[in-house]
Amino acid sequence: MNSIIKSFYEENKIPGILLKQKLLKFEKNEDVASEFAYWIEKKAYKTDGAVCIEGYTAKKLSEESQYLDGEGAFMMLIELRENPKKALEQIAMGFKRK
Q1: What is the rounded CA–CA span in Å between residue 85 and residue 17?
Q2: What whole-number distance in Å separates Cα of residue 83 and Cα of residue 46?
Q3: Is the Cβ–Cβ distance between 9 and 22 less than 8 Å?
Q4: From the CB of residue 70, how many other CB atoms can be counted at a distance below 10 Å?
Q5: Residue 68 has pLDDT above 90, yes or no
Q6: In whole angstroms, what is the distance from residue 79 CA to residue 94 CA?
Q7: What burial letters (b/e) apply to 25-53, b meaning 16+ CB within 10 Å?
Q8: What is the pLDDT of residues 82-98, one digit of tens each?
Q9: Do the beta carbons of residue 39 and residue 58 sit within 8 Å?
Q10: Among residues 43, 48, 80, which one has the least CA distance to residue 61?
Q11: Which end of the chain is more exposed for a tag (fewer CB within 10 A), N or C?
Q12: C-alpha span between 28 and 97 (Å, rounded)
């Protein structure tokens, strides 16, 4: 369990059941959790050695959508790993350009 992540969610008053779900996802994805903890502490995305899933890093996701800044980018990385087809469809729908 990453205490930095848990404290982040508690400080942001995430409800109990949602808190447990999010923490469980990070427990199953330790590399993403480590990078999220880095983001919490530094308020910056890693550039060297960043976790890359399906061609996306947290930084790239945050640059492509205002809705995926910070915690959302890391949760999307987990979604890309656990449900790549669904996540890629969500990204494609949210990133449409005319």
Answers
A1: 26
A2: 23
A3: yes
A4: 15
A5: no
A6: 15
A7: bbeebeebbbbbbbbbeeeebeeeebbeb
A8: 999 999 998 988 755 44
A9: yes
A10: 80
A11: C
A12: 34
CA 61 to chain centre: 9
**CA nearest neighbour of 51 among 71, 66, 33:** 33
Tally of residues, the chain: 98
Query: What is the C-alpha to C-alpha distance for residues 42 and 44, in angstroms, rounded to an integer?
Result: 5
Q: CA–CA separation, 21 vs 35, rounded Å?
A: 18
Written as six digits, the tokens of 62 are 């945050």
> What does the block give as tokens for 66?
């205002």
> Can you read off the two tokens belonging to residue 52?
């890359």
The phi, psi pair for 2, rounded to 5°, reads -95, 115
Q: What is the token pair recorded at 94? A: 């949210």
* Amino acid at residue number 56: Y
Task: Record the pTM.
Answer: 0.90
Tokens encoding 21 = 């779900």
